[in-house]
Amino acid sequence: MSASATFDTYARAPLAVERGEGAWLIATDGKRYLDFTSGIAVNALGHAHPKLVAALTEQAQKIWHASNAFVIPGQERLAQRLAAVSFADKVFFANSGAEAMEAAIKTARRYHFVNGHPEKNRLITFTGSFHGRTLATLAAAKNPKHTEGFDPLPDGFDQVEFGDLKALMRAIGPETAGIVIEPIQGEGGVRRVPGSVMRELRRICDERGLLFILDEVQTGIGRTGKFFAYEWSGVTPDILAVAKGLGGGFPLGACLATAEAAKGMTSFTHGTTFGGNPLAMAVGNAVLDVVLADGFLDHVQAVGLYLKQKLAGLVDAHRAIVDEVRGEGLLTGLHCLPPNREVLGVMREHGILAVAAGDNVIRILPPLTVTEAEIDEGLQRMEGAFAAMAPVQA
User: Fold this and answer.
1) Where are the domains positioned within the chain?
2) Domain 17-49+294-393 listed as CATH 3.90.1150.10
3) How confident is the model over 312-369, as pLDDT tens digits?
4) 330 contacts 368 by C-beta, under 8 angstroms
5) The domain 63-291: what is its CATH number?
6) What is the pTM of this model?
């Protein structure tokens, strides 16, 4: 095979996929894999969901792109629906999670600027976070593995240890604009922020005049069993970034905000050529038709609990391979003893796909439509993979 003409930026698995059906991926050689990656939590409704296929096909015969120089009816509808089921009053549409986070950062800085405090332009973030691959989001997360060779990074971010509220309080100063956190760190190892901590962060922001900003790019749109993960804690943010599952596989991100937080985002302060295009809006509205239907999130909670119980049994049986279950709903993780990519390789040989995360964790991310029978099949394949590794670990 000749060398690839693509950038060498991905450590791709030796698997070429051709098509998908629900929770299944079919490779070009015809082999079927149970897909518990969901495109890294993107394919919320699985592969080739008929409602999404119909919405995209119908819209494609009308108009693909118009630009934000004109009113896009689907955009107005999706924004209203997202506001209705969340804390938000205003929505800005983008194409990805990184772009949604960029909009969140700019919204926070602009808020303080129009309030007469341009010096309030720094955001506090946490170790282990991941907010995207743009220069600003790399600077926010400060992961040396991701930032090496990309200096100078934008200034304006102060990082503290994950979960260390005392360090957080010391980091707050006259230039602090807000606090940014993921309710569950996905890339960082499926580390959940306790509800008590979320409530304390909200209290600190209210007390200090800061904006509470959530990165729900991975946790949003039902992934944890609530439409947004913040709902588990009983608090609401001022600004939130979401993407991944919002488009069900079509590139779509959004920045949500209260009217107060978004008041500085006036004409020409921000924009995008492709964001909120008619194709993306058709698919996003179709995703919400499914996720917001009666009983759907109850299903996610039920199968999420079922999956976690099954994974706990797997840990009990294979403590030389995995020793901890993490996560919420269908955003779950297993902490590995061997290198996680070695574990993923053996799982792939047994026809089950998962995805790596930090802290030597593998993420188990089935589509939200997964059934208990498919979970049983997936766990059976994982059992076979772990059993095959056991002699090596003995």
Assistant:
1) 17-49+294-393, 63-291
2) yes
3) 999 999 999 999 999 999 999 999 999 999 999 999 999 999 999 999 999 999 999 9
4) yes
5) 3.40.640.10
6) 0.96
